[in-house]
Amino acid sequence: MNTILAALVSGVIFGLGLCVSEMVNPRRVIGFLDVFGAWDATLLAVMAAAVTVTGIAFPLVLKRARPVLTERFVVPEKTDIDLRLITGSVLFGIGWGLAGLCPGPAIAALASLSPSILMFVAAMIGGQWLASRFERQASTRG
Amino acid sequence: MSFVESEKVSDANIIGGLSGGAMIGFASVLLLLMIGRIAGISGILGGVITFGAAKDVPWRAAFIAGLILGAALYRLIWGPLPLQLQVEGTVLAIAGILVGVGTRVSSGCTSGHGVCGLARRSKRSVAATFIFMGAAMLTVYVTRQVMS
């Protein structure tokens, strides 16, 4: 129960942060990505502040023997820059550049009840499903 | 020749960006400290929509619900969400599919690779962040500067 509450509170603060920083607004995101147009520094400010907080606190937290509510930390252990990382990042970047929406802001923006956002999130889940099917095929084959 | 410099500079929301960014960072720290998980939203979503292999669904669902609830709370306090869609219809759908496929294949998005991965000084996440930002900037350049 406590883990669910902690995740909920973290999600609420994250969602509020996405709105306060206007990262839910595709115009802000496209503005940042439009380096040859009317460049918008907002996203840079968001990343700078967020990474400063996590960059200082993560190493301190990870020094603990275990998290407050669970047995152990679950952090990615892969270190190699493989083809999957590269192609996936390129595909994600193209989609992000087309719409100005990435997963967090898209989900938070569902609160607007905009049908377009709902459609985007559905397409995004469809894309994840598509990729997971290929994963399963690849793993049964090899 | 007149100066059009003013059109080149948009009204960046630095105060909102810094405070919202700090909240995003704090939320990520809270999740790691309390339950030992990385706040990577594509991964958390992928774990809820598991397509068969359900794992740790409750906390993931709670986090996703929290994201929407946070935005709803913003609406309640400050009014309508700042939301100006830049594309509609087919292009928006294609973008959604690409974001879904890409984040699944590369195991992360702006939050997991960006905010959290950079903080863990992960080589993979640094590479991913540079690649998706570069690809996105190139996409915006092609669609909004070259094609328009």
Instruction: Enumerate how many helices of chain A there are, as a single number.
Output: 6
Oligomeric category: heterodimer
Report the strand count of chain B.
0
Ends distance of chain B: 23 Å
N→C terminal distance of chain A:
39 Å
Total individual domains of chain A: 1
Q: What's the helical proportion of residues of chain B?
A: over 70%
How many domains in all of chain B? 1
Show the largest interface. Answer: A-B, 118 and 112 residues
Overall geometry of chain A:
globular
Rg of Cα set of chain B = 18 Å
Please describe what this structure looks like:
The complex is a heterodimer of chains A (142) and B (148). Chain A is built from six helices and no strands. Chain A has one domain (2-141). Chain A is mainly α. Chain B is mainly alpha-helical and 148 residues long. Chain B has one domain (5-146). Chain B is 72% helix and 0% strand. In chain B, helix 6 (110-119) packs across helix 7 (123-146). The longest helix of chain B has 24 residues, at 123-146. Chain B is globular, with a radius of gyration of 18 Å. The model of chain B is unreliable at 1-9 (pLDDT under 50). Classes of the chains: A mainly alpha (142), B mainly alpha (148). At the A-B interface, helix 1, helix 2, helix 3, helix 4 and helix 5 of A face helix 2, helix 3, helix 4, helix 5 and helix 6 of B.
Tags for this entry?
heterodimer, A: 142 residues, mainly alpha, 6 helices, 69% helix, globular, B: 148 residues, 72% helix, disordered N terminus
Short description:
The complex is a heterodimer of chains A (142) and B (148). Chain A is mostly helical and 142 residues long.
